[in-house]
Write a structure and sequence with these properties.
Number of strands of chain B: 0
Largest sheet of chain B: none
Radius of gyration of chain B: 20 Å
Strand content of chain A: 35-45%
Low-confidence stretches of chain B: none
Largest interface: A-B, 42 and 34 residues
Distance between the termini of chain A: 102 Å
Oligomer: heterodimer
Structural class of chain B: mainly alpha
């Protein structure tokens, strides 16, 4: 009997010991595959896909996928880590592809993909080194039973699995320089390829052997950094705090009223107490309402957008610099369009590693969120890049006529023509076609004041606008790469520059 | 007991001295707000002071003075009857006197706290961070416990020696203990509150109970003396 009791206790003990193992390994029945680039090929200067495929079997999966991209310099102490984050909730026996699109430029640091379980445990992590110089070589993608084309050296060729790219956003093709297909594309994949072609993608259908690899420009604009420009602009802003004079006046009236009531209402001390409480509560509610949103309203944001189109490309590259300041050190949620826009956290004037988290919602891919945690100096700097289809076409004809076709939804304001180092003011350009006979108008110099002037000078100093080339440039008022409803005090300046080919 | 509470509260509220004290105190809080509140400034070199902390410390000190002045006797309200007056000149029981006087003091303290609500709420909204209860709870507990010792002093005929002792004790606690090495510096009530809030509030309850017990003992003693004098 005693032996049986010990045996029973032993069995209970063993069960208790085994039980936590079952909880700890609740993610074992999950297969997670991670792939960076197209078939492992990455193109520096372009948007590269990171595909995470999660498959579940007997056990459901609930967790989070985090992609960390690091850039900056250790010596200059301006390392930035950007985290793209999305949560995954999968039932048993199901499969889900989660796609991240990130432009890659900094070859010094690996791209890190981590998968965490719901309780925060690290399930899987993978570091992708992108140091190889080959990653700058063009990529040709083949779809179907196509024979490999003869190519010169320094070109990479890969076969694309139609199943893998079907239903994905067109930006998944961005690392490619050329896509060769056996037959015209159909269905979802066809739509994506058509859209990519509209955006300047190079597609060859059939057994053609002649193709041009140099036509598609880099969509990731490299190291142009607005940081100093946005910081200088932000620092001259006034913090919109509630009026100190107004609040002080209300407080003074309150104290005066209290003293007067207590002095003149005699022999009714309970009434006095009641009046004092009512007075205090009324003024409390009034003053609280006046100042309750002061923390939120005192946040200031300055945004500079530069839309650059070199030589009538179907897409324009958008550079963005955003600086946010809040005197009350808060976290701010901002949103942007995923898959053709990305934001990196800035902060070169800060020590240590700055961090920003980007929340990508897989259910609603129209907008993604950024949770910007302001640094100890209460400032957040973001650098953004994107590609946008802005349909503006400009040509300088030989007969001295400047032809501008504005097919974009925007009104181009205060447009100038820059040719031969001289400027010509063209006024506002509405949608549609506009012609200027520039032989009869004298060219002059340009004078732009305020933040716009600072922005323009910066573009000239950084050789984005050069006197040796021909441009039209103007301002777009209602363009924003980055939006938030949390900040009421926003200054946004968007400069559109189009380099014209003679 | 209710008679003591109402009469005591009436004497306090109707007194010009108390009104002057409350008015001046509120004006000091207003001045603190006026000096420290953030005004017009640009992002470059901007500084948002912790207004609620400054106003909170100011209130803490003013409330200490308020507690001492309103409990040790009738310094601010001439018509108020002290604990000694009630013990010697009335038939109220010691427990009624203690509960009545202490309740009226707490009610007056709470009323004063309510009057500071507009300034505190504005300060809270304009400060980087803060918690309104982190101001009100320490003020209530510290002054509540100190008030019991004030009542004890009010049982004495010659209060000068007791007031002097209490003042020296308070100044020593608030000023000289700041430089002491850790953990001795935790004798300082403000440091203790900052480091161990809200656990530090229990420390003040330990101060409250002996104060009330001593006052009770003193009232009983005064009653006995009164009875002996009457019998004699």
């Amino acid at each position: 009997m005693k032996t049986l009791r010990y045996l029973f206790l032993l069995i209970v003990l063993v069960i208790l010991l085994i039980l936590p193992i079952g909880f700890a390994s609740s993610q074992i029945g999950t297969d997670i595959q991670i792939e960076l680039g197209i078939n492992g090929l990455v193109r520096i200067g372009r948007w590269n896909p990171i595909l995470v495929r999660v498959s579940t079997f007997g056990i459901p999966f609930k967790g989070e996928i985090v992609v960390d991209i690091k850039e900056g310099s250790m010596i200059l102490e301006n390392i930035r880590v950007t985290s793209l984050k999305t949560s995954v909730d999968l039932p048993i026996y199901s499969k889900k592809d989660i796609l991240f699109l990130v432009p890659l430029s900094d070859m010094r640091y690996p791209v890190k993909v981590s998968i965490f379980s719901d309780d925060g445990r690290l399930i899987k992590t993978k570091d992708y080194e992108i140091k190889s110089l080959e990653m700058r070589w063009p990529i040709i993608g083949l779809i179907g039973n196509n024979s490999l084309p003869y190519t010169q050296r320094d070109i990479r060729i890969t076969m694309l699995d139609p199943e893998l790219i079907s239903g994905k956003p067109f930006m998944i093709f961005d690392p490619l320089d050329l896509l060769i297909m056996e037959s015209p594309p159909q269905g979802d994949m066809g739509e994506s390829i058509e859209k990519w072609r509209d955006w300047g993608g190079n597609v060859v259908v059939g057994e053609h052997r002649e193709f041009n690899l140099s036509s598609r420009a880099d969509t990731y604009p490299g190291r142009i950094d607005f940081q100093n420009l946005v910081i200088d602009s932000l620092e001259s802003e006034v913090i919109p705090l509630p009026s100190k004079g107004f609040i002080s006046l209300i407080l003074f009236i309150y104290i005066l009223l209290f003293v007067v009531v207590f002095y003149y209402v005699r022999r009714l001390f309970l009434l006095k107490i009641l009046i004092a409480i009512i007075l205090s509560l009324s003024f409390s509610i009034a003053l609280f309402n006046i100042t309750s949103s002061s923390k939120l309203n005192s946040t200031v944001m300055t945004q500079f957008n530069l839309i650059s189109n070199r030589g009538n490309n179907p897409f324009s590259v958008v550079y963005n610099g955003t600086a946010v300041f809040s005197p009350y050190s808060m976290s701010i949620r901002l949103s942007y369009e995923p898959y053709n826009t990305v934001f990196w956290v800035g902060g070169g004037r800060e020590k240590g590693i700055a961090k920003t988290t980007f929340v990508i919602s897989q259910n609603n891919q129209e907008l993604s969120d950024i949770l910007l945690e302001l640094s100890p100096d209460r400032r957040g700097i973001l650098r953004g890049w994107g590609i946008k289809r802005i349909g503006v076409n400009a040509r300088l004809l030989k007969n001295g006529v400047l032809y501008i076709e504005n097919d974009s939804p925007y009104l181009l304001k205060e447009v100038y023509l820059l040719t031969g180092g001289k400027y010509l003011y063209l006024g506002d350009i509405k949608r549609g076609e506009t012609r200027f006979d520039i032989r009869r108008i004298n060219l002059s110099t340009v004078k732009i004041e305020g933040d716009k002037g600072r922005f323009f000078s910066w573009a000239k100093n950084n050789d984005i606008i050069s006197d040796k080339r021909d441009y039209i440039f103007g301002w777009i008022d209602d363009f924003s790469l980055l939006n938030t409803t949390e900040i009421h005090n926003k200054n946004s300046y968007t400069l559109y520059i189009m380099e014209m080919k003679r | 007991m209710m008679v003591i509470i109402l009469k005591d509260l009436e004497a306090k509220i109707e007194s010009y001295g108390m009104l002057r004290f409350l008015g001046i105190s509120m004006f000091i809080f207003f001045l603190l707000f006026l000096i420290v509140a953030p005004g017009f400034q640009r992002v470059l070199g901007s500084f948002i002071p912790n207004l609620i902390l400054v106003v909170g410390i100011g209130e803490f000190l003013i409330f200490l003075i308020f507690t001492i002045l309103s409990t040790i006797g009738n310094t601010l309200s001439e018509d108020e009857r002290t604990v000694r007056d009630l013990a010697l000149g009335s038939d109220f029981s010691p427990s009624n006197i203690i509960i009545g006087k202490y309740t009226s003091f707490i009610l007056h303290l709470v009323l004063f706290l309510i009057l500071t609500l507009p300034i505190n709420l504005v300060s809270l909204n304009l400060s980087p961070k803060g918690d309104i209860m982190a101001i009100y709870l320490p003020i209530l507990v510290v002054n509540g416990s100190l008030g019991s010792w004030g009542l004890f002093i009010s049982t004495m005929k010659d209060k000068r020696f007791a007031i002097l002792n209490l003042s020296i004790l308070l100044i020593s606690l608030l000023v000289f203990t700041v430089r002491l090495p850790y953990p001795w510096r935790l004798i300082n009530p403000i440091l203790l509150m900052i480091n161990y809030y809200p656990l530090a509030l229990l420390y003040y309850l330990l101060i409250l109970i002996p104060g009330l017990a001593l006052t009770f003992w003193r009232i009983k003693y005064l009653k006995r003396v009164k009875d002996e004098t009457r019998d004699g």
